[in-house]
Design a protein that fits this description.
Number of domains: 1
Helix content: 25-40%
Oligomer: single chain
Largest sheet: 8 strands, parallel
Radius of gyration: 17 Å
CATH architecture: Alpha-Beta Barrel
Structural class: alpha/beta
CATH class: Alpha Beta
Number of helices: 9
Strand order of the largest sheet: 7-6-5-4-3-2-1-8
Strand content: 15-25%
Length: about 230
């Protein structure tokens, strides 16, 4: 079987999450989104066999190809990578959650592409690490973007997402994650209900959990290095 050590890796991840939640005094559920980017469909099957329910992909086309191959596999698909406007029509309705809405024109395009029926659930990505190359709305522009999206009838914003800088400095990691948590608190005081905080990846998820993450996006720590 592919990824035979995945159950053990997942058990260690869950133990780490529980330990860091306890240290910080949190009791809410932290969902593990298994990032299968760069791995074949067997990674998704292995994730489900190990008890995971959520899978994250960075690229729309790669995700759709896997979805077509795995139509019978009971899994919830997340789009965690950058979404280009010209791919919005392919993404709507195919992901239980889009993590990377970060500007008004993208939000409007996604909204325009959602058919009648259930709204598309999204997170607003925020650049909390002050890195120019990172995606995400600037923190100071978040209130205006949330107000714009609130006026779109086919989108449901359920939380915020961020990435810390690529560093092993836990102090720097913590600054980014704490910033997102504080932005969520301020936004909720302004009337936005944002229960989800998607933050933390393989190299920094313990710190993200301590700062209140409700979802962590994990690839390498579960599956090992990507094959491509």
């Amino acid at each position: 079987m592919e990824f035979p050590d995945l159950p053990g890796r997942l058990a260690r991840v869950r133990e780490t999450i529980a330990r860091h939640q306890a240290a910080a005094g949190w009791t809410h559920e932290v969902r593990v989104v298994a990032v299968t980017k760069g791995h074949g469909p067997d990674a998704v099957r292995a994730a489900v066999a190990a008890g995971l329910e959520d899978v994250g992909e960075n690229r729309v086309q790669e995700a759709l190809a896997k979805q077509d191959q795995l139509a019978a596999v009971p899994v919830s698909w997340h789009l965690i990578g950058t979404l280009q406007r010209n791919k919005a029509r392919h993404a709507v309705g195919r992901f239980v959650l889009i993590h990377s809405v970060d500007r008004a024109d993208l939000a409007a395009e996604v909204d325009r592409r959602v058919p009648e029926g259930p709204r598309q659930r999204v997170l607003v990505q925020v650049n909390c690490s002050d890195e120019a190359q990172k995606g995400g709305v600037e923190p100071g522009e978040l209130p205006a973007l949330l107000d714009v999206i609130r006026g779109l009838s086919r989108l449901e914003v359920v939380g915020l997402m961020t990435m810390s800088a690529l560093t092993t400095d836990t102090t720097e990691q913590r600054l980014a994650f704490r910033r997102l948590h504080e932005l969520r608190q301020a936004s909720e005081r302004n009337g936005h209900r944002l229960p989800e905080l998607s933050m933390g990846m393989s190299g920094d998820f313990p710190v993200a959990v301590e700062e209140g993450a409700t979802m962590v996006r994990l690839g390498t720590v579960l599956f090992g290095e990507r094959i491509r």
